[in-house]
């Protein structure tokens, strides 16, 4: 195993352990996820070697320090959800100009917490993670709200939340506006259950799904698709079909033997519940092996 492979294996082991802990640390999981994309900064990615002069090449420690620093800038004595929402909007949305635009959906960096903290731009869900983690450190009653089509932040009682949209710098979000997001994404009405606080692992899986969607639109980035699937499979709860997706990615990348073997393993899982689909997967495995000739 190379030094780089060893670093990756250790990082993924830490990701899996944190995901299975009693109280998963959202920031740490997002930072370990972001490290999969490579070193932080304008320099070209480089392998990590034992004794590397940079103690924090993936920006994990620096990002945690920045979250702590931002939390320390919030005023003391805030007591109401509206007060917390206004203070965070003033600090993050106005003073530090965290926000997003349609162009940010086209950038992988918009889904990586280290890069969002550095660029102060990102997707709604990553900007929400910044808000959640800064507010949580300061003692705010904060949580993520996974509306279909648009992730936002809530303060106070989940039954009567104060909602804000970090993508627009922390603009207050009325129930009617939240309903418009839901209607635009699903055609359905806003249901009270949609306002329930999102759990850390749900947030992480949604981020990984976004990354997989970004990479799927770029066939040359199967490397990103593969690590996003690998991390998704390390979560305690994930769609079983991801195993098949991983096998297909291996075949796309020319690893025909490994891809075929993983397809056959997935077919065994399907045998008792979807035998017809299992047989189709086995045929695809045979076709993948044929490409070795």
TrEMBL record:
Q: Where is the composition biased (Basic and acidic residues)?
A: 8-21
Tell me which residues make up the Protein SirB1 N-terminal domain.
Answer: 65-209
Q: What is this protein called?
A: Tetratricopeptide repeat protein
Query: What organism does the record attribute this protein to?
Result: Streptomyces rhizosphaericola
Instruction: Describe the family membership recorded for this protein in Swiss-Prot or TrEMBL.
Output: Belongs to the UPF0162 family.
In residue numbers, the region (Disordered) covers 1-21, 38-57
**According to the UniProt entry, where is the signal peptide?**
none
